[in-house]
Automatic annotation (TrEMBL):
This is Acetyl esterase/lipase. PANTHER family: AB HYDROLASE SUPERFAMILY PROTEIN C4A8.06C, CARBOXYLESTERASE. Pfam families: BD-FAE (PF20434). SUPFAM superfamilies: alpha/beta-Hydrolases. Keywords: Hydrolase, Signal. It comes from Parapedobacter koreensis. Residues 59-224 form the BD-FAE-like domain.
Amino acid sequence: MTINRKRYYPLVIGWCLVAFVLAAYAQQGTTPVTYQLVQNINYRPDVADDDYIRERCVLDIYYPEQAKDFPTVVWFHGGGLTGGEKFIPEELQEKGIAVVAVNYRFSPKVKNPAYIDDAAAAIAWVFQHIGEYGGDPGKIFATGHSAGGYLAAMVGLDKSWLQRYGVDADQLAGIIDFSGHAITHMTIRAERGIKDTQPIVDEYAPLYHVRSDAPPLVLVSGDRELEMLGRYEESAYFYRMMKVAGHQQVYLYELDGFDHGAMAAPGFHILLHHVNELTKK
């Protein structure tokens, strides 16, 4: 199901969530499921070499203890690549999936591409270790909001980042990008002295790496009249160019009435829907 310029209303989202929860409950039956949270795991192999890496390059993993072969959502927080903190979204808790919340380094303390490399290292860690917690390495999704969505899209589209860690980006079950830049990120432009109203598309833009053989791509944007700068239009062009390149599984949603920050809450319902659909046997 491909959706172009889709207006997604809260009532529809609510019914989708009810259906998803009922289906998950039916699958679980009466067996109780408990969830475990393990915090502040260092994910970089060079963690001993740098105090800032030890501080920032950590992740939390939240997972269902009794389950096996569950999907995993790797969640990158927003904050413009200059701030923010990892968290397990409430909307993704107790949904039969694992959530890996990732911290990464910030500009200006580091410069591009350090934070992109952090995102790749974190995703690679999940591929290498999720089986130890019961998860299926074939069901890993790169996701995030704003700067986090940008990182997920960059690492998922430009295969060179994960190749550094021995992982093929096409092993991702999907990329779910909440209102992330499709052009080169504004903080990367600021590091070069370029204002945030000057769009650039270079090798640090997800748009630069559109390809037909990428993992399924889900783009979720807030209301075009309420979003930050031209974020909806970036997402719409990203969607169109992926289609032009021949990609068969790209989806675009616009959340009416929600601005850049508020769109994440209803966006989680879309995320759960696609995780469920893309991991069906």
